[in-house]
Design brief:
Elements (H helix, E strand, L loop, with lengths): L1 E5 L3 H17 L8 E7 L2 H5 L3 E5 L3 E7 L4 H19 L3 E6 L2 E6 L2 E3 L8 H24 L2
Parallel strand pairs: 1-2, 2-4
Antiparallel strand pairs: 3-4, 5-6, 6-7
């Protein structure tokens, strides 16, 4: 998996690159055909009511996290979105559009509209984010200044 980070501040860009590389390795995504785009955006929470989002195209997966996140919440959000990246890269989660209608499938089955907390891909991401976030935090703490 190729990693591309779009960020104006060089120090933050280096941090996001390290975070992405660590998660790609931990999630065994090194051989994925996708390019992973990582973005940090101001006011993501107020714009989308989310700390982070993950979406994809035919050859790309993009993760965007709110630039105001700090500490453990930054690592937890990043880990959560990277788990979605894993789901997409492995073909378990697919998102698309037919005209104006958004379509999602989970494990090959089209998913109708459901509450956020009932979505199986979210349940998996919440189950797995804690360990990945803790490992990511430890890695960054030990390897950056």
């Amino acid at each position: 998996m190729n990693i591309r980070v779009l960020c104006r501040k060089s120090k933050k860009k280096v941090l996001l690159e390290a975070m992405a590389a660590f998660c790609v390795k931990q999630l065994n995504l090194e051989k994925s055909r996708y390019t992973l785009w990582v973005l940090s955006k101001n006011d993501l929470v107020s714009d989308l009511h989310a700390d982070g989002v993950c979406f994809h195209g035919p050859n790309d997966i993009a993760i965007c996290i709110d630039s105001s996140l700090t500490g453990l919440s930054k690592y937890t959000t990043f880990a959560h979105e990277m788990i979605h990246a894993k789901q997409i890269a492995r073909g378990v989660l697919k998102m698309g559009r037919i005209g104006r209608r958004g379509i999602m499938s989970w494990r090959g089955q089209e998913v109708k509209a459901m509450a956020y907390e009932e979505r199986p891909w979210e349940a998996q991401a919440f189950r797995e984010q804690g360990k990945l976030a803790a490992d990511l935090h430890t890695f960054i703490s030990r390897n950056t200044k």
